[in-house]
């Protein structure tokens, strides 16, 4: 199955989703990247971004490499996230996903959330499974 060019109601990147994150991705043969600045409605404890949404940023950026570059559909089979330091509300971060390994229907990805000073706020490893190959 070849994915649609655009999913307008996707929580991460859908342009029509009123509560979505509205992410815009850049992709090349090696990586997928996006930036995000959390707002007050994205917080957990005062002034800090919710960890579930940090995980969402990582998951969506890794998945969009497959969707945008390979033009395939894949689903997250397993994802492990390590939180290193908080992402503060109003702090613009960069999210980067890269391919680690491919084997059959499985693609292993790595993701990082990088702060302006270059430090890593969170990182993830994921195993993504291609649909129906």
- List the strand order in the largest sheet: 1-2-4-5-6-3
Helix content: 10-25%
Query: Which CATH class applies here?
Result: Alpha Beta
Radius of gyration over alpha carbons? 14 Å
Order of helices and strands: EEHEEEE
| Structural class category | alpha+beta
Strand content: 35-45%
Structure description:
It is a single chain. By secondary structure, the chain is of the alpha+beta class. Helix content is 15%, strand content 37%. It contains 1 helix and 6 strands; from the N terminus they run ββαββββ. It has one helix at residues 51-70, and strands at residues 26-27, 31-36, 74-83, 93-103, 106-114, 120-130. β1 and β2 (31-36) form a beta hairpin. The protein is globular. One of its GO terms (molecular function) is hydrolase activity.
Attribute tags:
133 residues; alpha+beta; Thiol Ester Dehydrase, Chain A; six-stranded antiparallel beta sheet; globular
Topology:
Elements: E1 26-27, E2 31-36, H1 51-70, E3 74-83, E4 93-103, E5 106-114, E6 120-130
Antiparallel strand pairs: 1-2, 2-4, 3-6, 4-5, 5-6
């Amino acid at each position: 199955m070849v994915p649609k060019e655009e999913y307008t109601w996707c929580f991460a990147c859908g342009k029509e989703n009123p509560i979505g994150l509205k992410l815009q991705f850049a992709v090349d043969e090696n990586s997928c990247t996006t930036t995000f600045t959390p707002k007050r409605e994205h917080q957990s404890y005062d002034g800090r971004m919710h960890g579930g949404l940090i995980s969402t940023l990582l998951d969506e950026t890794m998945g969009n490499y497959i969707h945008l570059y390979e033009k395939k559909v894949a689903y997250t089979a397993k994802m492990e996230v390590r939180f290193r330091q908080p992402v503060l509300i109003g702090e613009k971060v960069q999210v980067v996903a890269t391919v680690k390994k491919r084997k059959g229907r499985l693609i292993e990805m790595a993701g990082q959330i990088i702060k302006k000073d270059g430090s890593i706020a969170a990182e993830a490893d994921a195993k993504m499974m291609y649909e129906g190959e």
